[in-house]
Structure formats: C-alpha cells, structure tokens
Design goal:
The chain has two helices and nine strands. The protein is of the alpha+beta class.
C-alpha cells in the first residue's frame, strides 16, 4: 500500500512539474512574439523554419540540422509499474529539418529500480529462500520523424513517431535459504514504437528549449517467454526476457541549431 501511495505521489508531482514547465515555455513564446512585433527581427530561426528561409514553402527544400540533449522521467505502466519505480531518462539526438518535418537519430538510457528489491518464497522468512532484484537498465537506439506546426515566429508544436530498439540488462540473485546463492544475468533486445508530442521555443539565435511527451509501446523481445514483472512469476533460469509493456515519459530538451 505504501508503494502504491508513493507511486501516486510521484506521478502527480511529475505531472505538476511537466505542466508548469509547459506554461513557462508558452509564456516565453508569447512574450518573445510580442517583442518581435515591436522590434525588427534579429534572429535567424532556421531551426524553426526547417532549413527553408521561406518557412518551409520554398522550392529548394533546403535542409538544416541540430544537436539535442534531453532529460526527463519515465513512468512504467501496467504490470511493470507494479514492480519498478519511475526512473530518470536521458537521450542525445541528431536532428535534420526538411520543410515542415524533423527527422531524428537518437540514443538514450533509462535505469529502473525495483519497488521491492527482495521477494521471499514464504511470507517474510529468509530461511525459506528469496530473490533479490537488481536494476533494470535499457539502452535505446531509435529514429523518428515529426511534423512541425509553427505557433509563433520563434515557437512550434510538433507530433510524430519514434521507433527503434531497446537493449535491456537485468539481473537477480536467488537464495535457497540454506546459504546457496545463484546469480542470473540477462541481456536481450526489444523493439518499440512511441508516438510523441512536443513544443519547442527559440531562446537565442541558435538555442531552443522544449518539452516532449512520449508513450512507449515495447514488444516482446528476442527471448521473451517468462517474465511479466510480477512476484508470482518466479523464473529460475539464466535466459529470459520481458513480455510487452508500456511506459510514459516526459522530457525537457535543449537544442543547438546549426544555421
């Protein structure tokens, strides 16, 4: 019950922070738009016109590119949320703008901690044996595309899709209650697809800040047969993977645009 209460508090706090940051970005966008209405524009927001000086409607379809850093929080959903806590997540992306589209190639990382790191076979009696869970770590490699909708001279909203691969690392140890301990490690891959929605605001000639929300759908991995993230399903083998699961993540992005 304590873990359910803690998860609820974390989710509500995360949502409050995310929407507060969104309001700050929107305020920055509106304020900058009011400034640009009274002063001649001095900024080349090529990243927001996607490489086309005519706002994405020119005939040449010129490209521009950018590098982006992202930090956020990932909230497990479904069965996974019963066993693992929300976790910080980080990513690095190469972005390519073409007309009204943004294409990305990215690498990311997330590490989940178990809500209960020890599961006893019988009640809370360690003499009857138990399992100890380590962190659930994922290295993400993916590509994606998004369609951009300008909302001001210096701001845009976008929606799109990422898809790629998770390389997962998980370990646990088993004690039979008689002092015999075995350690199991597994590495396996899972494919995923993630619809995304975001807003991006230029804050200087080449720098922009943004917020992005993603819902990640992960599919059964290369060895997925036995683990469903519940304490009742105790797996005693050195080779296993997870059934498909879902996570929700929110990210704050910092992007440098090369003109």
């Amino acid at each position: 019950m304590y873990h359910n209460f803690l998860a609820m508090v974390c989710k509500r706090s995360f949502r409050s922070i995310f929407f507060t940051a969104l309001l700050v970005l929107l305020y920055t966008s509106v304020n900058a738009q009011m400034y640009s209405a009274t002063d001649p524009p001095k900024r080349n927001n090529q990243g927001l016109t996607y490489g086309d000086s005519n706002g994405g409607n020119g005939g040449n379809g010129d490209r521009s590119w950018a590098l982006s850093l992202s930090a956020g929080y990932d909230l497990p959903q479904g069965d996974m949320s019963q066993s693992f806590k929300a976790a910080p997540t980080f990513s690095f992306s190469y972005l390519n703008y073409y007309n009204n589209f943004t294409f990305n190639a990215s690498i990311g990382y997330v590490s989940y901690k178990a809500k209960v790191d020890t599961a006893y076979f019988v009640g809370n009696d360690p003499t009857q044996g138990y399992l100890q869970y380590g962190s659930y770590n994922s290295l993400e490699t993916y590509v994606g595309a998004a369609y951009n909708v300008p909302i001001a001279d210096n701001a845009k909203v976008y929606f799109g899709l990422d898809f790629g691969n998770y390389i997962n690392f998980f370990n646990f140890s088993s004690n039979d209650g008689e002092g015999n301990t075995s350690t199991y490690n597994t590495t396996y891959s899972q494919q995923f697809i993630a619809p995304k929605l975001g807003v991006d605001v230029m804050v200087s000639d080449n720098l922009s800040l943004g917020l992005e929300a993603k819902y990640n759908f992960l599919f059964s991995g290369s060895q997925a047969t036995d683990l469903d993230f519940t304490d009742e399903d105790i797996y005693v083998s050195s080779s296993y993977s997870a059934l498909s699961y879902k996570t929700f993540s929110g990210h704050l992005t910092l992007t440098y645009h090369f003109n």
